[in-house]
Amino acid sequence: MGECWGEGTATFMILGNICTRSCGFCAVATGRPDALDPFEPVRVAKSVKIMGVKHAVITSVDRDDLKDGGSLIWAETVNAVRRISPGTTLETLIPDFAGKWENLQNIIDVAPEIVSHNLETVRRLTKQVRIQAKYDRSLEALRRLKKGGMKTKSGVMLGLGETEEEIYETMDDLRAVNADILTLGQYLQPTPKHLPVVEFITPENFAKYKQIGLSKGFRYVESGPLVRSSYHAEKHLF
Ligand code: SF4
Predict the structure, then answer these.
(1) Extended strands (E) in 65-204
(2) Cα–ligand 1 centroid distance for 23 (angstroms)
(3) Tens of pLDDT along 119-131?
(4) DSSP-derived 3-state class of residue 212
(5) Which of the 8 DSSP states describes residue 120?
(6) Binding pocket residue ranges, ligand 1, CB within 6 Å
(7) pTM above the 0.90 mark?
(8) Cα(195) to centroid(ligand 1), Å
(9) Those residues with Cβ within 8 angstroms of residue 18's Cβ, 6 or more apart along the chain or in another chain
(10) Domains of the chain, with CATH numbers?
(11) Closest approach atom of ligand 1 to CA 95
(12) Per-residue pLDDT tens for 51-95?
């Protein structure tokens, strides 16, 4: 599955359309995932080439059903893009691999230009927003990625009921693991079955959070109502 965002950036989702998790904000279907497609990496890479993508953002459903968490297909996809479309840079928006760090290492080994892992929300709301995830496990994933030499990025949705203080604590937690890039965007409810929007954050507050994030040491902060994790992704190469 691919989506084009203009300016030479496109997003691709791999490892199927069905996720083993059921996050309260996400419209992706939960259930038993499809069988793995060993040709997916080459198909994605060929699409990248044909579409003339300069910067590819690759994401996936979570595959907690697989021993390797899908990390080998992930790594092969990065390698295939490098092989078939060598001028394309890559951002991989990866899962936490359920804390199986040998699977995270498979990503570090192929060294995408940017590796993202989203916290999605503040510590207090994590259980409600990402029921199978853990706030500290996500921070540990980001810490390990940074230790492995990656440029790291994380996204947080606002408007789920977090306080301003909690937003700053989340920024501090991300800086404590040396995350380089932060995205802050407005949460929107995809269907009535998903978590409700508690608050619409004003553009002025998004602008304030950007300045505060930069003052805390993030290299880039994208902060605005329409910001999503792949927003201006091509600008985060440095
Ligand atoms: S793990 Fe990712 S794809 Fe799966 S439900 Fe959560 S946000 Fe959606």
Answers:
(1) 89-93, 114-116, 152-158, 181-186
(2) 6
(3) 999 999 999 999 9
(4) helix
(5) B
(6) 19, 21-23, 26, 28, 61-62
(7) yes
(8) 14
(9) 28, 29, 30, 31, 32, 33, 34, 61
(10) 2-236 (3.20.20.70)
(11) 1
(12) 999 999 999 999 999 999 999 999 999 999 999 999 999 999 999
